Structure formats: structure tokens, C-alpha cells
Amino acid sequence: MFHKILIANRGEIAVRIIRACQELGIATVAVYSDADAHSLHVALAGAAVRIGPPPPRESYLCGDCILAAAQAHGCDAIHPGYGFLSENAAFADAVAAAGLTFIGPSAAAMRVMGSKTSARAAMAAAGVPVVPGYQASQDDAALLAAADGLGYPLLVKATAGGGGKGMRVVHAAAELPAALASARREAANAFGDDRIYLEKLIEHPHHIEFQVCGDHHGHAVHLFERECSVQRRHQKIVEETPSPLLDAALRARMGAAAVAAVQAVGYTNAGTLEFLVDSRRNFYFLEMNTRLQVEHPVTELVTGVDLVKLQIRIAAGEPLPFTQAELSQRGHAIECRIYAEDPANNFLPAIGKVLLAVEPVGPGVRVDAGVTSGDEVTLHYDPMIAKLIVLGESRGDAIARMRWALDRYVVLGDVITNIPFLRAVLAHPTFLAGEQTTDFVDTAFAGWQPPPPAPEELELAVAIAAVAEQVQSTGGATQSATVEHDPYSPWRVGDGFRVGRVGIERG
């Protein structure tokens, strides 16, 4: 087992990895930019190293800086989390060359599955269904001709990266040249790679992914699916498992395809196979994320497997501690991502100081937070504040528990949060019926506006914020509070009020 692990990340995932290491008795080293000098992950780690100014390319994407920090502190492994360098094969190679262990897949597997075009080819060779597409040439004339053969609508997609960047929907041939140009520009800016390809658009699909793990002894399993169809700007905001769409037969077929994919490329450690499922229940390989997923907690809750600890153990050479037959799903889990963003303004970031964060607590409620009271959500990084996860005996039980928890999640300060929007999603008839598809948010919430808060809620929000500000101004440190198990508790206000922007003047 490892002696000391450097966490090459920030925010809630860095906090999550630090906790797993602490439970395993492994020392930790955090890295931070100037913007994160006072962040939660820095406070919790055994040691912390400044690696540069706020821009990611000068800090969290600086592989040489991170390697130097790991070597200076005697680390024997690096955990990349997700995002930043987590899917960078060159960085994985550099870690290995430095004599350290990269806690993730091999660089070779990362290169195959990290490129959407090579991944599609590998999956097709392994017998995994893929969406019809074209990737043979980057020439515009060839792409235009291929598009006519595929038929419209279709997608222009970046070969590298993810998160919806470098992706364009094209409904007619006249739109394609402009879409090719803009997708290339965005892909080059985001990933340093302007290559694109075409894919037939599967209309109104479900987005379902399978968690997979492989060890260094030739064993591979899946840990079942996650339903990820609630998205904005091609990015997930609500995930759940089991998927309300899948029956036992379809789950078994998709799980077998996911394991076949792992075995085809000799994949080790944790990863995720993403699929689209059409209206006829046909499924198609979309891409593979060669890292831990943001939404991994829902899998942990229904399987009882700590995926971060499992990652560490696999990287240390241990075999998988279970077979496929020994894995099962128990209950139903839902995750909501709490963002500092304004859903009424195209989900644009609404950053600033968090004066007070009050997290719900209770049976079946988990919060993975990277931001706490007194922290600032900056423009430099993803504006996610926390992940709120619940486990229930059934889907209906989990939905009720999540609504309870959202009502008791309070974020006060200069930020706006998406908590009111998440409440609306969980109350929508389409979601309650389990019929949400990837266009659910766009179609069901076009022009959505948050409900106005009650006057007494505004008064309470301003009063709490004033106290928090006073504590901070006198040198005290407000900490993340806990919620009483009281249905009449004043802490049940969870709208994420933006103090000074709610019609109340402050002196």
C-alpha cells in the first residue's frame, strides 16, 4: 500500500480523496493555486503546496509543477481526481517515468479511449454498438459528403475532451460549414486539439452510463448503471441509480457490453462507459471517461463499494475484492449538483462569497462539499459548491428524501444557487414518471423563473447573512452548520438568496 498520495485536484473531489486516504491510513499532500489558498481541501490535507497563480494552465494543469511537489514531499502516488490532468496520457506517462504510481488507467488505455474516434473504432471491433458516424477525414468536402450519407440531424463533435465543448447540432446541410468551423475553434481552445467527427443525432435519448473497474490481474466488473439524462448545456446536474428505464434484461446486456469494452483495451482502475438509449431501447456507445466520475457517490450508496478506496487498492496492485455475481444494487440513490449559477440566466455562473453554508443532515443524506462558509466561488474554476446525495428504499422514497434535503440546504452570500431549480426538477411530472431524456431541461424549463421567496424567508436570510458577515469581520470563522431534525426549523430555507439582490437595501 502507498505511504503518501498527492491529490492533483481541488474542491470537493480533493476533499473526497483526502478522506479516503485518511481512512486507509495514507498521508496526503494537497496542491493549490493562489485562488484556493484558504480552501477546504488545503485545510484538510496533511501538507499543502502552492503550485501557481489561479489560471489552470499555470497551476492545476501544470504537470511539471505537480510532479515536483510530489517528489519534494516524498509521495509514491498521485491521484488526479476528475478534470484537469485526470485523462492526460502524457501526464500519466510522466508520473510513471518519475517512479510514482498514477492512480488511474494506463496511458495506453487512456490514449485509445480518450480519443472519441479511436474509442469508437475499438468499441466497434469489440462488438459494442456505436452510433453511426464518420471519422475518416478532417477535410470539409469529405465531411459534407459523409453528412449527406448519414442524414440530418447530426452532431459535429470534438475528438478530444468532453463536457459538451466542441459539439454542435446540425439540422440541415446549409448549417454544416459554420458548425464545423465553430466546433474546431472551441475544441482547439478547450483541448488544444481541433479535430472533429460526425455522428448521427439520436433524438430524445436517455443518457445512461455504466461504472466499470478492472484490476491488474485480468479481472473486470461493472457496478451497474447511472441515469444521467437531466442535463443543461450537455452537462449533468441530476443523476440516479438504478435507472427507471432499464429492466433486468437490458441492464444485463448493457453491463456485458461495458465489461467487454474494458477487456478489449486492457483497462485498469475505475472508468465509465457512457451510452445513449433510443426510444426503441437500442443502446449505443457514446464515449468512455477514463477516470472517476463526478456522480460516483450514487453508485457507492447502492453497491456499498467505496470507489475511491477501490481505485487506490487497484493502483497498489490488489485484485478486485469481488466478482460480478457478488455485486448487487440495494435501494435507490439520487445526486443533485449544487452550483453557484443562475438557472434563469441560461445557467451562467453566479459567483462570489459564500457567507454561510448550511448542509442538511439526516438518515440517508450525504454531502460531498468543496465550499464552506467563508469561501469564495471564483471565475477560475467550475462553480460547483457541493454534491447532495440521498439513498432511499425505493425511487419514490429517494425523491422525497432529496426534496426534504434541498429544502434544508442553505447557501447565503453573493452567490446565486441552482437549488430552487433542482426542487422544480424533482417535482416535475416527467421526472416523477422516470421519463426524462437529454432534452428534458430544454423543453420542460424553457424560460423558467424561480418562485419568489416568502417575506419571512427574506427577513431570515438577511438576518443570518448579517450575523455571518459580522462574525467574519471580527476575525471569527463561520463553519458549515448542521440542520436540526425539525420540520419547523428556520434552517429549512434553501433558495440560495443573493443578499442585496432580493429587493432589500442594506446599510
Give a nutshell description of this structure.
The chain is of the alpha+beta class and 507 residues long. The protein is 33% helix and 24% strand.
Overview of the molecule:
This protein is 33% helix and 24% strand. It has four domains: 4-102, Rossmann fold (3-Layer(aba) Sandwich), CATH 3.40.50; 104-130 and 202-330, D-amino Acid Aminotransferase, Chain A, domain 1; 132-200, Dna Ligase, domain 1 (2-Layer Sandwich), CATH 3.30.1490.20; 344-416 and 438-507, no CATH class. The protein has 16 helices and 23 strands. The longest helix has 19 residues, at 455-473. The radius of gyration is 23 Å and the shape is globular. The termini are far apart. It has 507 residues and is of the alpha+beta class. Residues 476-507 have low confidence and may be disordered. An eight-stranded antiparallel sheet has the order 14-13-10-11-12-15-21-19, with helices on both faces. Strand 10 (206-214) and strand 11 (220-232) form a beta hairpin.
